[in-house]
Amino acid sequence: MSKRATGTVLEVEINFSSDAPLHRQLYTAVKRAILDGRLRPGTRLPSTRIIAEDLRISRTTVLNAFDQLSAEGYLEGKIGSGTRVASYVPGDLAQQAQRTQLPSSHSKAKVSQRAHLHPNDNLSFLRTSARPLRPGQPEVSLFPLELWSRLAAKHWRRATRDPEHIDSLGYRPLRQAISDYIGRLRAVRCEPDQVLIVCGAQQALYLSAHTLLDPGESVWIEDPGYPRARAAFLSAGLKVIPVPVDSEGLVVSAGKKIDPSPRLVFVTPSFQCPLGSMMSLARRFELLGLARVSNTWILEDDYFSEYRYGGVPIASLQSIDQNERVIYIGNFSKSIAPLLRIGYLVLPAALIENFQYVRFTMSRQPPGVEQAILAEFINEGHLERFVRATLRTYRERREALVDAINSYAKGLLETSPSGTGMYLVAWLNPGVDDQAAARAAATHGVDVIPLSTFCMRPLGRKGLVLGYSAYEVNRIRVAVKQLCAALSRIQA
Ligand SMILES: Cc1ncc(COP(=O)(O)O)c(C=O)c1O
Q1: Residue 200 Cα, ligand 1 centroid: separation in angstroms?
Q2: How far is CA 148 from CA 143, 156, 174, 379, in A?
Q3: Looking at ligand 1, which residue's alpha carbon is closest to its atom 6?
Q4: Quick check: pTM over 0.90?
Q5: Where residue 77 falls among pLDDT bands split at 50, 70, 90?
Q6: Closest by alpha carbon to 135, among 314, 276, 305, 301?
Q7: Residues 449-471 pLDDT 10s
Q8: Is the pLDDT confidence value at 417 over 60?
């Protein structure tokens, strides 16, 4: 590092071992000095020759830096003979800089009341890479990357030659592919023009909350239920009503006692998030009946529906709705990977236009080329093949996790998982706190999610959500042993 004083007015530091170009370093240093108020408006700078000599850099380097500063308006006058700090740079910049220094904690910054409706989530886990048994992760190593790359190259070439028109609902061939796919596999009844492509289920939830309801209107959510759905509804200022669930899914009768005519009901009928029960047919009809008489919208999040380990998949709720009250949400975050960030809504005809323009303002849509790749991936049967392959692997891993719990965790954990999904719930002994258990597990190298994270009201018995889909059988066994060590410690 080399520090050089240049005359009495300009003192800058140039680091010769840095990768940053010298002209860029000089530009940044002079600009900072002006913004900090160390170089006052109108101050005459030494000549470029003197600066170059003092700093032992070439004159061209100084000229490059000064050119840029002049172009941005920080310097005025003729470069090389009498350059000055611009007179219109406010003289009290230094004081302003002190006054407006960012608070040490960002939470002190003044933001809207609306921003505070967004839950102050702990997002730090998203920055760390997944360790066993973090739930909800697909096995990406089985993904046909070569094939995807070939399709990507093809569609990028095509897009640059002949940019395809992506309409405001999304890329039409993808909408067609999705409507065929969910028609075949989930019995969803829809035309491609009812499919709106979005950036994952989260955007679908946010968009639905903002398009369908006004602040203060009520939405039922499952309790325990998907925390990010709750977050999306709270952020829209909605009144969130927790409704209990049991082995048949949402207890509709209990919901009616609390709030007989909600504007919206959010459900996960294929795999109740997180307990895993499937909504019984009786409950499905009860909910559709409520929707018909109360003009309630039902938001069906059909995640995990592909991952059913025994028996035939149960058709979607949308498929038995006779009154166009169900809005169906699907995504590829589990069946391909969360990083793809493509999901979709299937909308009743009456809602298409409103959703379309709200979304257009809120954000656009996932990248067009990714949509084109995915359309071909689905149409050529690759998605179904990939889901079949991962289903076999996940079944094996699920069995390994259940066996490991039954063999090593007797007296610490109990589980009776459903026949669907990518994770399961293991119950702790009565009185054991799941947050403490998760913290202890983390110190033993295992990531689990406390069941209470999903709850609005306390559950009688606490539990842990354990993922298996992304971890090899041996890693699952080791992780369960580590988890047992952690639990034994906190129960001792
Ligand atoms: C109930 C539920 N729906 C949807 C998703 C996925 O959302 P996204 O498509 O935004 O990744 C998850 C992810 O964990 C989930 O648990």
Answers
A1: 8
A2: 9, 12, 15, 13
A3: 201
A4: no
A5: confident
A6: 276
A7: 999 999 999 988 999 999 999 99
A8: yes
| The Cα angle at residue 329 between residues 149 and 213, in degrees rounded to 5 | 135
pLDDT of 88: 78
Output the ligand 1 site: residues, CB below 6 A.
136, 200-202, 226, 268, 273, 301, 303, 331, 333, 338, 343
Tokens at 250, concatenated? 């949402």
Torsion of CA 243, 244, 245, 250, to 10 degrees: -30
Mutate to test the pocket of ligand 1, among 300, 334, 425 (most ligand atoms within 8 A of CB): 334
Answer for the pair 423, 132: CB distance below 8 angstroms, yes or no.
no
- For residues 415 and 133, give the distance between their C-alpha atoms in angstroms, rounded to a whole number: 15
The CA-CA-CA angle for residues 121, 126, 128, to 5°, reads 130
Distance 359 CA to ligand 1 centre (A): 19
Note whether 471 and 480 are within 8 A (CB): no
Report the residue count for the chain: 492
Residue nearest to ligand 1 atom 16, measured at CA: 226
Q: Which atom of ligand 1 approaches the CA of 226 most closely?
A: 1
Give the model's pLDDT for residue 161.
78
The 10s digit of each residue's pLDDT in 278-318 is 999 999 999 999 999 999 999 999 988 889 988 777 899 99
Minimum CA distance residue for ligand 1 atom 7: 201
- Which residues in 2-54 belong to E strands, given as ranges? 2-6, 10-14
Output the pLDDT for position 165.
Answer: 66
Return the ∠ at Cα 453 (arms to 447 and 457), rounded to 5°.
Answer: 155
Tokens of 472: 């090899």
Distance of CA 228 from the midpoint of ligand 1 (Å): 8
Q: Which phi-psi region, left, alpha or beta, contains residue 187 (left: φ > 0; alpha: ψ -120 to 50)? A: left
Q: Report the mean per-residue pLDDT for the chain.
A: 90
Residue 1 is predicted with a pLDDT of: 43
